[in-house]
Design goal:
The chain is mostly helical. The protein contains nine helices and two strands; from the N terminus they run ααααααββααα. A two-stranded antiparallel ribbon has the order 1-2. The chain starts with 5 loop residues before the first helix and ends with a helix. It binds heme C. Heme C (HEC) binds next to α4, α5, α6 and α7.
Amino acid sequence: MTEVPEHLLQRAAEARARLAGEPAPSASGSDAPAAASVPAAVTADPTPAVPEEPKAPEPVAPYVEAGLRRKTVPVWIVPVLAFLPFWAIYYVGYLENPPVTGGFAFEGGEANGAQCAGCHGGAGGGGTGRQLSGGEVIATFPANDEGVAQMVYWVASGTAGAVDGVYGDPARPGGQREAGSFGVMGGFGGGLSAEELAAVVYHERSSFGELDADTVEHELHLLEELVHVVDEAGESFDGASLDDVRLWVDAASTKLAVDGEMAAE
Ligand code: HEC
């Protein structure tokens, strides 16, 4: 006789009970394997489970996409940034350096226009005061330490300060200058600062003296150094004697010579 599998009998019983409106008969011991087979079938199911579903590409936020597409910092920015501090130093130096010499010459030009041109003429041609142009100023005050010292002293003290009634180079063509022979010039030691006075002396000598470029440059350094010497000594050209000024010019000249030797080594 053909054996009817247990689970089919069970199902038939259940179906009968359902039709009769009775509660399903409790599962017999043979129920367990059948129940166990259900989860087994589920796990064996080849249909891909939820996690294996083909993933839709995750939507990228517009701001992330923009970030990815944006150009990154270019490589050449590295040397540019590394060079920046040097450029800054150079730039500051460029700003500061020229006005030192330019300022000195400029200051001299300003003082000349404001204080001297009225009598000596803007171009040094002379008038109430003596002619300075055409090398005249250098004929009186030669291009050496003594000539510079005498001129600084003259501009500071004027006609009244002339020692023994004379001023300037004794070997001047036409003879040494006699104070008051052309009129009277006041002193500027009180009206001008040490720097303004040295600057105006530089201006008259470099503009009207017909000196060569090397001499002009030397006198620029000498007069700038003279200002340092006077400032450091806490002195002023106002009321200074000719010998005081000679000493200061001498100190400035020595300083320049030492600096020059050190630079040459
Ligand atoms: C009020 C007019 C007047 C003014 C301003 C004046 N000077 Fe004179 N300067 C004279 C006179 C006058 C003499 C001649 C003085 C004498 O014979 O004692 C003279 C002489 C000089 C000399 C000598 C020239 C030589 O060959 O003998 C120099 C250098 C000089 N002045 C420079 C200056 C400078 C620099 C200034 C401006 C800071 C200045 N003077 C302002 C009237 C003036």
